[in-house]
Description:
Elements: E1 3-11, H1 17-25, E2 29-33, E3 40-48, E4 51-57, H2 69-81, E5 85-91, H3 95-108, E6 112-117, H4 119-124, E7 127-129, H5 131-138, E8 142-144, H6 153-165, H7 179-195, H8 204-212, H9 216-225, H10 227-248, H11 252-268, E9 273-275, H12 284-292, H13 297-338, H14 343-360, H15 363-379, H16 381-395, H17 401-411, H18 417-422, H19 430-439, H20 449-459, H21 464-488, H22 510-544, H23 550-566, E10 570-571, E11 578-579, H24 582-606, H25 608-620, H26 627-635, H27 642-653, H28 664-670, H29 676-688, H30 693-703, H31 706-734
Parallel strand pairs: 1-4, 1-5, 5-6, 6-8
Antiparallel strand pairs: 2-3, 3-4, 7-9, 10-11
Helix pairs in contact: 3-11, 7-8, 7-10, 9-10, 13-14, 13-15, 13-21, 14-22, 14-27, 15-22, 16-17, 19-21, 20-28, 20-29, 22-27, 23-24, 24-25, 25-26, 26-27, 29-31, 30-31
Amino acid sequence: MNVEFKIALAGNPNSGKTTLFNALTGSRQHVGNYPGVTVEKKEGVYRLDKTKIDIVDLPGTYSLTAYSEEEVVARDFLVFEKPRIIVNIIDAANLERNLYLTTQFFELGIPVVIALNMIDAARDRGIEINDERLSEYLGVPVVPIIARTGYGTKRLMEETVRLAAKQEEWKSKPISYGEDIDSTLLDLKEKILHTHFLTESYPPRWVALKYLENDQQIIEKGRKENPDISAELEQRVEVVSRHLHETMATYPEAMVADHRYGYIKGILQKGIISHKYDKDRLYTSDRIDKVLTNRFLGPLIMCLVLFGLYTFTFNYSELPVSLLEGLFDQLSRIANQTLPEGYLKSLIISGMIDGVGGVLGFVPLIMFMFFGIAILEDSGYLARVAFMLDRIFRIFGLNGSSVMAYILSGGIAGGCAVPGVMATRTLRSPKERMATLLTAPFMNCGAKLPVIALFIGVFFRDHKAQYMFFFTILSWFVALTLAKLLRSTVLSGESTPFVLELPPYRFPTLKGLVIHTWEKTWQYIKKAGTVILGISILIWAMMTYPGLPAAEKEKFDLQRQKVEAAYPLQTSVEDTTNTISIEKAAEKNRQLAVINGAESKTALRYSLAGRVGTALEHISSFAGFDWRTNIALIGGVAAKEVILSTLGTAYSLGSEGQEKDSSLAETLAADPNWNPVKAMSVLLFISYYAPCFVTVICISREAGSWKWGAFSIVFNTVFAFFLAVLVYQLGSLVY
């Protein structure tokens, strides 16, 4: 008989939870968002014999007290979805701290199976754990595993299926919190039971515990359900809080935390853990950190690592990028030679091949960049970057918690502002959170990366890695400076403390690197083949219609007729065929090509997009932007990759005598209107102007108001234009 049930994976950040999820589900997973929130939801399937297990990967969290959105999401999922089992992933080398979350699962009453992960790393540190004795004292199955290699995962799922087959009712495992707390808990529980207060959703004792912990989400729900009962519970909590403060200089939530850790220590002291080495011994990660996180050497090494990443990316991606560009050039030539003249040919060449090809041509560069970042992330080095930057961030009114939001947004290059903005929900201070989510889009996301790479490759070819490094450092400086401005004005307030767990260094597995690199690269390819293709076709239509007025078209027809008349065909006496000298034929074709190019450019100016771009030229010219650049920048508001596809389409449709099958890079390099100063101005504007449409929506949702999304569009664009004008005007004086 086939059996199906749902389980949840839960654990602290850096415990290996997602690694286990990927190992169990492989390709049988999908990603979305939890209803009503932007927290990512991962679901997958694992099959064991005739049992199908639906697995939900909960957000990483240190507790079930609602301090952050992840904790609220994880808790609400457990309470309202009621999975059959929760698999609690624990870092074996940090057993005491990780078991703190386990005690809260016990209090909630959900059946638990403990996955004792990274058991190999614990043994390398000389830590031996008696998993059988730990299972005996906790009263739940404990299975040692190594998620990244798959060791123990089958046994883990067998234990999960065995426990699930019992179909036990949720039963809370109370922990004693001392006489004062326990007596108050008993009184509150009786009151809750008697009045059926929130008992449809939560266990009575657990609700009482949340009131003692000052859990604002539960308290708000209680006030909505029955304000009188909630007020009475809050009053009783206030009494015990005052008593604890007067007698022990503490508060109920601190007392609860202390007794949870006391419960954990009491178990671990019963022969659960043995140390082969001295507890004070410096382990490999600690010795490495003495160098890599050194106050002086650490930042220098970090800069060298980033510079090395860009050197690796540009040097090794140059050949595959050129090969891919050649492929699209060849496709363009074939289409140009085989398709009849008309709108269909124009759509395929200018709208599709030149548009999307300009984006897909950078797939190798994107892939190399993602591969390098995956190495930094999987090895544990990115956590050290956040640790080191905390000191700098404090100067600008933020703390190290904002670093990961910046990195996810493209702080190293190749991220995305959407998960970066979403990552700010872990910040405790609302004002720090707002300052971070408004400045995270200034990072060089994966959508900006091919645009930056194109202009650097064309105009700063001899120093590509140096310029990429410069734009990365500049993006951090700009973001932090503007964050300081916001924190000093509309978002003023004190910075909050920053605490970060540094995971041990690990050698990334080739499989993990390939999966992470391919996932992000495939997202880029899929976006280019769907969203970017659709926008490219739409922009092609805007660049094509309504077309040339009849009077203008007649002017170009007359010019062609004059050329034809100036180079008439001559009759040869010998063979009575029409001939013309090779030199004259070449000159005739050159003049006709110039006329056709001028006609294409004029037609583009008369199109809907051309008229908009030309109208903006009166202002944009101060920054060196011409009308075709304006069209591309407008398209970039939808998605930054569209800038390349739009430029490709604009120069393909409006070419003046150039070969239409030449690449965008070759076209820009040959255009006399482009130079390094203009390229720098355009790059700076693209780096900092309005976020893409999806990011604006995300900012509005995370901030809880559309006014902040509108603010990011206006504020970013005004700042970017001012910077571009400054650079172009000063640069033009010396270039």
